[in-house]
Amino acid sequence: MVIPDRDFALELLRKVRLPFPIRQHSINVANKAVEIANNITKAKVNTRLVEIGGLLHDIGRSVTHGFEHALIGGRILRERGLPKELARICETHILGGLDKDDAKKVGLPEKDYLPETVEEKIVCLADKHMTGNHEVSIGERFQKWFTKYGKTSLLIKSRKRIIEMEKEIKKLM
């Protein structure tokens, strides 16, 4: 597995015409993900994978802002011959991951899109801590979503999954 460098990732985001505000968000997610990774002492973390995964996690938003941006992002990376680990980060970052039922509810192919590796979980968590270019708590992030979309069962389940993910990551520090 050869993970590209930061310059390659940033150039790729420009090539696919990812809107500037989303590129800025992605840089912030990558920086937050590296910060989290650097604090982990009880597990081996591929920090470069975390950084580049953070930069590329929203590449599918160059096509759509819907839930399918995660799958489109994975496809974009696979088509360019990038490692499957980066594609998985794209595919598993939305809402803390989606199980088969949730995926079906939002119109995605019926399968699990749940973060499994520590790197996938770190990027997913870092993304939830960034709203646009501002760092927020998980509580603040979900309160914004609840206000915007209502306290749906999908968001409640997502919040629970993210809180558990955050606890899991903190135990590794």
Structure description:
This protein has 173 residues and is mainly alpha-helical. It has one domain: Hypothetical protein af1432 (Orthogonal Bundle). Helices cover 62% and strands 2% of the residues. The chain contains 9 helices and 2 strands, in the order αααααααββαα. It has helices at 6-15, 20-39, 47-56, 69-79, 84-92, 100-105, 118-128, 138-149, 153-171, and strands at 130-131, 134-135. Strands 1-2 form a two-stranded antiparallel sheet. α1 packs parallel to α3. The mean pLDDT is 97.
Shape type? globular
- Range of strand content: under 5%
- Using the coordinates shown, work out and report the CATH topology: Hypothetical protein af1432
The strands making up the biggest β-sheet line up spatially as 1-2
Order of helices and strands: HHHHHHHEEHH
Major sheet characteristics: 2 strands, antiparallel
Rg, rounded, reads: 15 Å
Low-confidence blocks of residues: none
The CATH class: Mainly Alpha
Looking at how many chains there are and whether they match, the oligomeric state comes to single chain
| Number of self-contained structural domains | 1
* Mean pLDDT across residues: 97
Number of helices, where a helix is a run of at least 4 consecutive DSSP H or I residues: 9
Number of strands: 2
Give the class from helix and strand content and strand pairing: mainly alpha
Task: Tell me the distance between the termini.
Answer: 26 Å
